Amino acid sequence: MEEDKKSTAVQPEEAPKPKPRRRKAASPQSAADTPPAPTDSAELPAADGQTTKKPAASPKKPRAKKNTKTTKTAKSKTPKAAKTAKKAPADETPEHKAPAQDSPVPAAPELAEPKSESKPEPPETPAREDAAAPTVPDVPSTPELPEPAEKAEPAGTEPEPTADAPAADDTPAAEAPPEAAAADTAVTDTPEQTGDVPAEDAAEPSGLVFSDDLANDKALAAEAARMANISRTAQLSIAQIMAGLEEDPAPSAGPAPAPEAPQHDSAAADEDDEPQDTIPQALGRGVFGMFKWLLLVVLFVLIIAGGGVAWLYRSATPDMLPEVKVTFDGQELAPTAYKWHVPVVGSFFRRTYAETLNSSPVVLEDAISDASPDIIVTPSDYSTQLTITDADKETVYEGSVTGFRSYLFAENGTFDAKLVVTASDSAAEDRSSVTGTETWQFRFTVGIKPSVTLCTPTVQQGSVAAVRVGSTMSRTEPTLTGPLESTGFVRAANGWICYLPIPWNAETGNTELTVTADGYTETLTLSVRAASYSYKDYSAKSQLMSPYIGADDAPDAVRRLLTNDGGEIQWATGGFVQPFLDSFDTPLLYGMTEYVGRSYSERSTNYGYGGRTSTNVVIKPKKSKDSMIVPASGHVLLAEDLGGSYGYTVVIDHGAGLRSIFYGLTALDVEAGDDVKQGQLLGTSGRTVVAELRIGTVPINPLLVWRGQCDGLKYY
């Protein structure tokens, strides 16, 4: 049968050249009786369709020179050479190694090294048909392989199974026929063909020549070529895997199992198999490395900064806290709490000192005696907030310390105050200064003692004394007690005032007066001196002045008006003037006593009984029916004709209990209820007019008042 022509694709790299192996001839008996030993090599199909054993790969050795002709050994040299089993390599299957024969085996001649590196095409191997010999499977032509790489394959490494031959584990070993065994044992190992050796030279066996027919010779040549092809294919596969190539060698005839994963024998092959990084992976690895470096730098900086901050934090001691001093009405206050922030790293990081020194308000010992006490904060560049509440927890003041300077307490009592001094970054010029707050809570008593003044320490009889009391916190009217009669205190410009009329016969000397205001009591001493009065002696009663109206002779209509309390002071503007525009005579003065029938001695000593003393003034105008004017502004209480000796009577209230009374008018120009001004026309006088001036019910000297000689009425 004609043999198919096949070619195998080769790589430019040359396959390694194995060292030639020798085979020893075995006796037919031993070869036949001994079962085939299992080896790691694959089995090939024999000429009769059975499989024959594949020779195991031998370690790579330098290639020996090949002779151009094969040495033939005589058939009769050894009878046991007909059936010889192949000797397995010692390093692959030492437990199943066939026993060595004693018969000598001629050594294979050395092969000459080809001198040319050219790679001629291997010629086709002709096929011969032989009826007597078993059919030999077609063997593809041996391809030319390039020189292998310089790396030497380590000994004992089995070649990778290829498509040319099935794996040793998959195909069981079969017992060869006697003819095949004889042909197998009669041939020695031949060197592997390389790309520079012709096919016919490679197919020629180097060993014994059998005397059978040429079919056995052909089978041996085909088997040797197939073994060389399998060895080269395995070596090429290993070289491709090590080089990182993914190309598969061209398949050869016969079924081929799936290739097994290549096993790497060196660290260099592992490094070659690692895939190269892509650009994003390389960038990612670089960024990650830079990030780790930056992280270490940041960590180092944080450690250094943390140590510095810790040192600065320990340096921020309480000695750096500000000292704020507060005084209230001259009394220094102690703080009750504070919370200060001392800068450590500028305004970003501060150390806080906070403490509550006293949870309850501090009670001041001395009472506040001024309606507008002073509160001073040192230094003055801090912002302040002051809140004051009374005993009913109602806020009476809330604002700054500066605004409190114009505040006046309206009443006495107990008050609670809270002062907060604040130092902020917005108010401070230096942003790294200490900021925070300090608090003062205190309780104080406002006991403002009103001022009490005796305006006229010394007065004469028939005059007026005045007592002034300053503004009171309770807004209640002060009181005055003593031997002198008074109408009480009335509102004045700067507080209160009380007018004390001094009777014409008041006891001279010092008089004690007690004034009580806002719970405070003060005693005053008033000195009363005697006035100089005149007297008249008559021999008959008809000579007495008429009309005469004594202190107790006032009509009921007038007496009822004298009991009323005084109102607002009206003479503050303009004072008093005499009620006549022209001059007049005063036949009876205030305090003058009229006697009738006294003896000479009594008159000389001004002693006696039976006389009457005038408490008013009898005026005789220069001309009859002269016009009269209002001496001081006031309110008309009475203006009518009372008849008898009283005639037309007018009562004017000037305020503070001071009233003017005029008897004996012939005509009236005012009516009751009118408000009159100083100098306004009052009416027309008669032949005589009785003029009287009273504070309350006590008559005083009108002439002193009209002429401005009464000092007490100058205070209002």
From TrEMBL:
GO molecular function: DNA binding; metalloendopeptidase activity; structural constituent of chromatin
InterPro entries referenced in this protein's UniProt entry, alphabetically: Cell_wall_metabolism_enzyme, Dup_hybrid_motif, H1/H5, M23ase_b-sheet_dom
Keywords: Hydrolase, Membrane, Transmembrane, Transmembrane helix
All copies of domain M23ase beta-sheet core, residue ranges: 627-689
Gene Ontology cellular component terms for the protein in this record: nucleosome
Compositional bias annotation for Basic and acidic residues: 88-99, 112-131
Residue ranges with Low complexity bias: 26-42, 154-192
Start and end residues of each stretch annotated as Disordered: 1-203, 247-280
Basic residues bias spans: 60-86
Membrane-traversing stretches: 293-313
Source species, domain of life: Bacteria
Stored Pfam families: Peptidase_M23
Keyword GTP-binding: no
Any one Gene Ontology BP term: nucleosome assembly
Identification of the protein by name: Murein DD-endopeptidase MepM and murein hydrolase activator NlpD, contain LysM domain
